[in-house]
């Protein structure tokens, strides 16, 4: 297949394609489900040719130069910890996790799940895609692989500790320090595999969501199965879709969605965060262009009903997607409000560093086009130590009940906990 060409490709064939590309190239995956809010195109990066590790010395200008010095797309992430630097939050905690990692590739494959068009850009890389595609046409089933259960799963906060710290957060709200705070738990376990692809493929098959990432950042391999869009920018048109409001269910019923939308507590969570997002993106959007629509819309993901709104604007001509992202980072939905004070209290209440969790993954095409997610439902494998870490959290407001917030948090971690606790069939 020649460079910069496209063909029609069925979704089930694409599933087999990305499996083959990972098997052959250990490709980085930025996949998306267009049927979910914020879902868009899928990207697969083959053979990284340039990279930028973001540290406390990295400047905004260096990030911009890396992203915009050519026309190739940039894949990567910024960790939640980078937000400490941006917002001026101090911490005594120590982590070896990088602030961020950006890559460019020798070849990029793009798949549009709506038009079913597969595009290949391989100007500097001799990829025999015809041969790989022929493997996908064998009609073999999508292979998930074997996932061994963990012997034990440790958490940074057990039930009693999480409830105690939730109550402390509620006290801070009553005392007027904050209006809302996102409190999380870090889970860790030994992982009996060399990489996370079997886990990634299993989740993609059984727990679809809008943003699926598998990304190598040595010595870590990161998995993100996020339902939340951070910032989407298409030709300067900005869209953020913050999620707040959650209801777990065993059997879905429309009355449950109504119950969620009519909950004063859940509605307050979303409204506060929507207001923050509106303020965040207004810094770099044209005056008067920022609007809110589809407030308190619901969708289902991971056996949860979730609620979101759309916040839209128009990027100023003198600003770029980097300006927009850094001025909005970290996302409002995973910090709280006001943002800086919430982050300071999060650092006090959480015994762990979030690292990449609650940061953002992104594909930047140029100064006015970007797709990005909030890195929730996210974890990483430390390949040197053979340890898997994953996280979950809940938004705390004054009406919160500590026990309910703990149950919501464990429900969000449910797909990780369930698959790592049970023996899977080979």
Attribute tags:
33% strand, 20 strands, alpha+beta, 426 residues, 31% helix
Secondary-structure map:
Elements: E1 5-8, H1 11-25, E2 28-32, E3 42-54, H2 60-68, E4 74-78, H3 80-87, E5 100-112, E6 117-121, H4 129-136, E7 154-155, H5 159-174, E8 180-190, H6 197-206, E9 211-217, E10 220-226, E11 229-234, E12 237-240, E13 243-248, H7 254-261, H8 264-282, E14 291-301, E15 304-314, H9 321-328, E16 336-337, H10 339-349, E17 360-366, E18 369-374, E19 378-382, E20 387-396, H11 402-412, H12 414-421
Antiparallel strand pairs: 1-6, 2-3, 2-9, 3-5, 4-5, 4-17, 5-6, 7-8, 8-16, 8-20, 9-10, 10-19, 11-12, 11-18, 12-15, 13-15, 14-15, 17-18, 19-20
Helix pairs in contact: 1-4, 5-11
Would you write up a description of this structure?
The protein has helices spanning 11-25, 60-68, 80-87, 129-136, 159-174, 197-206, 254-261, 264-282, 321-328, 339-349, 402-412, 414-421, and strands spanning 5-8, 28-32, 42-54, 74-78, 100-112, 117-121, 154-155, 180-190, 211-217, 220-226, 229-234, 237-240, 243-248, 291-301, 304-314, 336-337, 360-366, 369-374, 378-382, 387-396. The chain is of the alpha+beta class and 426 residues long. The protein has a domain at 5-136. It has a 20-stranded antiparallel β-sheet that branches. The longest helix is centred in the middle third of the chain and has 19 residues, at 264-282.
